Histidine--tRNA ligase
Amino acid sequence: MSKPSLARGTRDFGPEQMVKRTFIFDTIRRSFQRYGFQPLETPAFENLSVLMGKYGDEGDQLLFKLLNSGNFSEKLTESDLNAGYKPLTAKISEKGLRYDLTVPFARYVVMNRGTLVMPFKRYQIQPVWRADRPQKGRYREFYQCDADVVGTESLLCEAEIVLLLHDILPQLGIEDFTVKINNRKILTGIADMIGAHGQEGTLCVAIDKLDKIGKDKVVDELRERNFSEESINLLDPVFSLTGGENPFADLRKWLASSEIGLKGIDELEQVWEMVESLGLKNPKIQFDVTLARGLSYYTGAIFEVKANNVQIGSICGGGRYDNLTGTFGVPGISGVGISFGVDRIYDVMEELNLFPENQTISTKVMISNFDKEAFKYGLSVLPKLREAGLNAEMYPDSVKLKKQLDYADRKNIPFVILIGSDEMNTGQLTLKNMKTGEQQKGTIEELIAAVN
């Protein structure tokens, strides 16, 4: 019989890992709720008519498609089989696993817009699937953790995202981080200024590498991408803007003739002012004119969060989009959102050893099991521990004490209550501290107080 194996690009999470992951999820969820976001869940699979065409050709190919139930090939003809995979897929598959949480969210908003209270603030923590080539740090199944506000263009939403990031990351122990912010309108203004209208995507792919390969290599790449020497020369101020003392003032002078560019600067300055008004001390925000994530998708502010002094790239990202629901025939619903990369955050916390020690503990107190009488006595003690809010269990078999203590040790259970004939006669139970080896006697109420 062959050994079982995991599907490529997926992982098991054992108890130790799950306790850590749950700590991350619970921390993020608490903050989402504190900021007024409401929970939402959508099905693991959607109709392909909902998913297809939303992520470009590459995204369509990375969708996991589900075969129709029953005899999916019953009505196929010879010509269907020879028509190529795309027409064939349409005949044998009507559904697919969700690729992200945004498109299902847009579908939900369109279907329920008559009953939703707008602006609608939702958070969603669920797995997504991509038929990608598995490699280090890239999986076919992974969790996304999104919070979005739709139905308002107010820049308060952007400022609140900055606060939310400053709330969640320190709670996870990540104190050294930078929230990089840009605005799509500024990028459009820059492209217009240098005579490369509509080429901001290509422009920013090159500029985005500035800190990795340096100015000269960026200029070479722009030449390879058919930017004129005149455009490249006009772009020169951008290279100094990224680290300037007052980038907004410098940028405002440079983009003075670009109406859309100036609007982008105004929006960012308002976000900065609101963050200050909301009382955030020493915000870790940085204007980065080269930031251009998901450019075709975003229409206003763009966010990216980096944990400093670790090898991992961005751990959160997001931005404002003006037409979330347009592909479903309901244009004009503006929104802004942020997505937390749970797997990357986990890796950062592991690398920096940030998980609280007690998070590895599932059971706090174990009751020993010496014999039939002690077992019966222990059954009356066990509920008292749980009623006091302690995670507790009793060893199920009457075996040698060494085996029971080994079990507690391997499971990182910090306390064991020993119940023998003396304890049953006197009501004075023995509490063993597994870390120090010390023992103390007391009533169950006294031992509960000692453990708490």
Summary: Residues 15-34 form the longest helix (20 residues). The two ends are 49 Å apart (CA to CA).
